[in-house]
Design a protein that fits this description.
Blueprint: H1 2-35, H2 52-63, H3 67-78, E1 82-87, E2 90-95, H4 98-107, E3 112-114, H5 116-126, H6 135-145, H7 151-154, H8 158-173, E4 179-180, E5 186-187, E6 191-192, H9 193-210, H10 216-225, H11 234-254, H12 264-290, H13 299-307, H14 311-342, H15 344-358, H16 371-376, H17 378-390, E7 396-401, E8 405-411, E9 417-421, E10 426-430, H18 431-434, H19 438-441, H20 477-494, E11 495-500, E12 510-512, E13 516-518, E14 529-534
Parallel strand pairs: 2-10
Antiparallel strand pairs: 1-2, 3-7, 4-5, 6-14, 7-10, 8-9, 11-14, 12-13
Bound molecules: protoporphyrin IX containing FE.
Residues 130-131, 142, 145, 205, 321, 324-325, 328-329, 332, 393-394, 397, 466-468, 472, 474-476, 479-480 line the site of protoporphyrin IX containing FE.
Amino acid sequence: MEVKILIFAAGILLLIQITNTFLIKPVRNLLKSRRLGCGPVPFELTRWPLGIDIVRRGLRADREQRTPDFVTARFEAMGCYTWGLSLLGTSNFITAEPRNVQALLATQFDDFIMGTARRTNLKTALGRSIFAVDGKAWHRARETMRPIFSRENVSRLELLEEHVQTMLEIIETREQGLKIDNEGRAWSAPVSLATLLPRLTMDSATELFLGQSTHSLKALLTKSQHEDGQGQHDGDSFDHAFERMLAILGIRMRLRSLYWLYGNKELNRCINTLHAFVDSAIDAADQARHQGSSQLRYDFLDSLRKRCSDRAEVREQVLGLLAAGRDTTASLTAWVFYCLVRHPYVYKKLRQTVLETFGPYSTPVEKNITFEKLKGCAYLQHIMSETLRLHSVVPFNSRCAARDTTLPVGGGPDGTMPVFVPKGTEVNFSTHVLHRRKDLWGEDANEFVPERWEKKRPGMAWQYIPFNGGPRICIGQQFALTETGYVLVRMLQRYDIIEGLDIDMERDWHNFTVVCSPGSPLARDAAVKCRLRVAVD
Ligand code: HEM
């Protein structure tokens, strides 16, 4: 008898749930949407239930290294810049409309939070990191971070030079070193810049943020000098753990609410390795303090420790920053070279500008390559702006409605009415599509034209948002542009010709994990393969 009652009660509950989901909620939403003057948005048609055909096509596009272009093609097929999609049982919106993006990130900031997948998945690895939290916790984390990105810290370029030198040494010593051509000029062996740059950004970020570098470039240099693997470095295990952590998080992001099914054990192992490194930096800072030695190199760590509630939070914030800072800056720098090898005249013009502004390679770097001079070098800045426009490092992003709300445009027959967004709905937005809209950028929107920035200004009317905008705008923007600018100047001073070895002028190749880096027809993770000719000073 009791069992029968239980089954009956469960049946009633299920019925209420179904009625609520499929009848009451839709009717309530429809009425509310009308009351708010919203219009319907078109939905993407799917052939298989739950949109499984789209998921499959998405996976194929990923294998073929063309995910951003796959999304562009879907926008083109829809014929509008705001539409709905039903995938794996959830209904989401996607937009590439400046006014909608502005609402999501700025004017209606409080109506939206980070998507659930991001909050839950990232929490495992990054805990209370600024990336994984919303509301008060985010406010606190942002305040903690602010002083770290002061102009003074961002200007500490002297930290970079040693790592750039190690990278150049790797380029010039691989495969028996430089080769001399018929004209007596020295060329490097083929090298993939996309594999070296994340090591460079990690080595310099750990030095700046933790006072001790991972020295993963040095580890690579040692390894290539002792192919037996002798002399392996701590930095290598840190680098490997970090690489794997990001790869696992990337896959888990794609699994959305099922993220927990994948990679738990390995993720925990990686996190332990990373935590051990941060702990050793904290201990080293303590020891330095007891011994009364210079604290300058531990400035960042100290300021973080003063603001965080415990050691675990320090680790979480540091790992969040490293996750935010390593691949993004490396990816931007790699994309710049991806564009330069395809446009030799731009390389030549930029090199000319660099020599005029900063002198040849042998000019002492301190005082000569400064934050101010990098910022004032217009053509260098235009190249970085154009690269970020054409090749978004973060091509897709999303927010989740924290309450019933609206987006300003995209609804109704001509897309000019607001769109009703019920609480819990994910709204995706694509900078890749937005940055290539011909109605906003002109007919040459798909071309690499740094000169367009002579007239345009970054930050115009929400049509250019490589670092997002509003209160959660990238806090590391200046740091990233300064670092990329510095690396470019040193590379262009050193090499007068760069010859691309994996160029395909027919299409772009994208290696999209957590961020989007250049891909390659030769090897997905060894992109921007090139040879470089050493300049005569
Ligand atoms: C070219 C390089 C970079 C690009 C394109 C970039 C892009 C972005 C974007 C789009 C966001 C917004 C994410 C969101 O709210 O959904 C963001 C946030 C953030 N970025 Fe960057 N980033 C870059 C470099 C860096 C660097 C070097 C650091 C630090 C070392 C950094 C630290 C952060 C932090 C801490 C946030 C979170 C801000 C917040 O939620 O308040 N970024 N970045």
